[in-house]
Write a structure and sequence with these properties.
Two copies of one chain form a homodimer. Chain A has helices spanning 6-10, 13-16, 20-28, 83-88, 109-118, 120-146, 149-163, 176-182, 187-196, 214-221, 225-228; strands at residues 31-35, 40-42, 50-56, 59-65, 68-75, 79-81, 95-98, 102-108, 169-171, 202-205, 208-211. By secondary structure, chain A is of the alpha+beta class. Chain A has a four-stranded antiparallel sheet. The longest helix of chain A has 27 residues, at 120-146. Chain A is elongated. Chain A binds a DNA duplex (30 and 30 nucleotides) through helix 9.
DNA sequence: CGACGATTTGAATAGGATCAATGGGAGTGG
DNA sequence: CCACTCCCATTGATCCTATTCAAATCGTCG
């Protein structure tokens, strides 16, 4: 990879506590590539050869079984994915594809395992990252087991609204079929869920969604920090 | 705690690589208690004061939102729970109650954090444990998003069957309402799901379930190692 | 303009949930 | 030991949510 990319990668939570020499050697063995949209990066069941870091663009994690497919998560910059499989030297449990043109750092998993064996600071950073990933999945799982589709959508809109600065409207970060799959529903039902939210001030205009009565929406959604907060 | 319990605790994956002195001091600060069934140990939203280890009995992890409740996982001996919250020094995302009389080790979370800061081997063990927990939740999440209720039950029966030595029948490890909640369905629907499986050789006799046509059941269930295998 | 994919809408269906009532054991107290 | 009670599990009936299949509409890009 180009040395001009080093500072950016180094700033990732996972690497910022690492000593510089070790970081250099880790990154020297890595590949930095730009992929077009809709490229399959990995497939579930394959052995975990690389840890992936999204530097630009966005990656969709998805899973398949018995002819069905569902979106498990979206990984924005700067995020890692498939860390657990790499650490365990196991097969991937999820597949990944770029959802837009994306710049991706690929670090051989052997190097990751060597680094965390010999660098306690890196091990701590990994623990932090893993704990965050774990809690994020727990929240998703709670959401799908405890909420209806309309409630899931309402809370997701409220989350995006906060993320985007609470300006009264929201720009959907992915296309609607992806959002539907992420929320665990069919695309048709996402449309209908939006319609159900109309009386609560939700107005859809393409990828922009206006939230004209946030308090009504919150009354319906009953947001719960133990499900919806990203930072805890 | 009694010193006679030390070897048992030491044998837990999380602690076996720890040096003896450090282990002693960690355990000296810990509490070992026996609780009756149906005792609430922790509640979601509370700060993570202890890491819990189940030595005997069984603990149910559950979550609530908006008046609904769901079972997130069952923790058999010897398993830990709420590790991620302890490491992050955050609030619990799940509640826990004993489902039977249980012997529980409670280790102050501050001591856990100190230990993993200063003991690289312990940090590695934590990484292993966390990665396992993460992958377990991912599998649960895949199961609920990709399978119908009947398929989830069928695969769960096959898993228990394997766990219990493939003897042609299965002893349900928890009562049916708990199993239903764990599988993400109402108790009534669990009964109906069992009925649906009758033509596939599934015969319910109280807590014992006979699997008289395993190949038919597997044809229906389409088990998937990336969802159902516990050890990878 | 035309074509393709994404989204929305419509209609019918199915899968699960809910409500209500009944059956069945396990434990308690007489 | 038996009756009683209570809780769990099952069954029935109905409702509701979400899926499925089909078709129409919208938007974008060539």
């Amino acid at each position: 990879m180009r040395s001009s990319d080093l500072p950016e990668v180094k700033s990732i939570h996972l690497f910022e506590t690492m000593n510089d020499d070790r970081f250099e050697s880790l990154v020297n063995a890595a590949y930095l590539q730009t992929f077009p949209a809709q490229v399959d990066l990995i497939h579930e069941g394959d052995p975990a050869d690389f840890l992936y870091v999204v530097l630009d663009g966005c990656v969709e994690l998805y899973a398949q079984s018995n002819g069905r497919e569902t979106t498990m998560a979206m990984v924005p910059p700067v995020g890692t994915f498939i860390l657990a499989a790499v650490l365990k030297d196991a097969v991937y449990l999820m597949s990944a594809r770029t959802s837009q043109q994306s710049r991706i750092l690929m670090i051989p998993s052997q190097d990751i395992r060597l680094a965390f064996e010999s660098d306690p600071d890196f091990a701590k950073a990994i623990i932090r990252e893993l704990a965050n990933c774990y809690r994020a999945v727990i929240k998703e799982h709670k959401s799908i087991k405890l909420r209806s589709t309309v409630e899931r959508l309402a809370n997701r809109l409220i989350r995006y609204h906060t993320d985007q600065g609470s300006i009264g409207s929201v720009l959907l970060p992915y296309d609607k079929r992806t959002l539907a799959s992420l929320l665990g529903m069919a695309p048709e039902n996402l449309s209908r869920a939006f319609n159900t939210l109309k009386p609560y001030g939700v107005k859809v205009e393409g990828a922009t969604v206006h939230l004209n009565d946030l308090s009504a929406l919150e009354t319906l959604a009953k947001p719960n920090s133990l499900i919806d907060d990203r930072t805890m």
